[in-house]
Amino acid sequence: MASTQIRTELRSWVSRSRTCWTSSCCPRLKNIGSARLYRPGLAEGEAWPQLEGVLSGKSIDWELIANQCDQMIKYATALRLGTAEAHQMLRRFTRGGPKHPTYRAIEELGRVIRTVFICDYLTVEVSALALHLAKAAIVYLKTRMVQIVLAEPKWQKKLADADRRALSALFWSHLNLYGKFELDMSKQLDLGPGPDLEVQLPN
């Protein structure tokens, strides 16, 4: 029961933290490729074959976190109020012999927070990459459409040099930025042949 309550509270904390989790405050992580995610251990024999390469062999010990929850809060409050020093706690936690149960619970909670952090980080990174690709595709599409219009003789005669200098592919008033998009992947726009580009390679 206690472990279920801890999981519920952690989910609530994650949900609240995501409200301010944007790409602008998402730091770059060093060695992100070597990071490992810890299994939640919610069901016996549960497997995620697509994630095997990044999953650790260990599962989160929710029972340990639940049993030591009050002690972790006590130590965290003591640090916050300044009634105990961090080095004193570490000395107590790291004495010879078996690990202190509260110290083990803090390590388990750290694994939970790290796993949630990495999952959110990767979600933001993938979303940002998809957004950049969509923006680049839209700019390229509009550039080609402008080129097609300018290739028509009637527009070539109407536009002066000043008009051509003012042209840009960065207009967006015709774009629907919100709502539902339905794509027919069996059709494509007729954008004509691409422009002839001369590429000069260095000697």
Q: Which structural traits does this protein have?
A:
disordered C terminus, 4% strand, 7 helices, mainly alpha, elongated, single chain, 203 residues, two-stranded parallel ribbon
CA-based gyration radius: 28 Å
* Overall mean pLDDT: 76
Share of residues in helices: 40-55%
Q: Kindly state the number of beta strands.
A: 2
What's this entry about, in short?
By secondary structure, the protein is mainly alpha-helical. The protein has seven helices and two strands. A two-stranded parallel ribbon has the order 1-2.
Description:
- The chain has a two-stranded parallel ribbon with strand order 1-2.
- The protein is elongated.
- The longest helix is centred in the middle third of the chain and has 50 residues, at 101-150.
- The chain has 7 helices and 2 strands, in the order H-E-E-H-H-H-H-H-H.
- It is mainly alpha-helical and 203 residues long.
- Helices cover 51% and strands 4% of the residues.
- Mean pLDDT is 76; it is low at 19-24 and 197-202.
- The protein has helices at 2-17, 62-67, 69-81, 86-93, 101-150, 153-158, 161-165; strands spanning 37-39, 55-59.
Write the SSE topology:
Layout: H1 2-17, E1 37-39, E2 55-59, H2 62-67, H3 69-81, H4 86-93, H5 101-150, H6 153-158, H7 161-165
Parallel strand pairs: 1-2
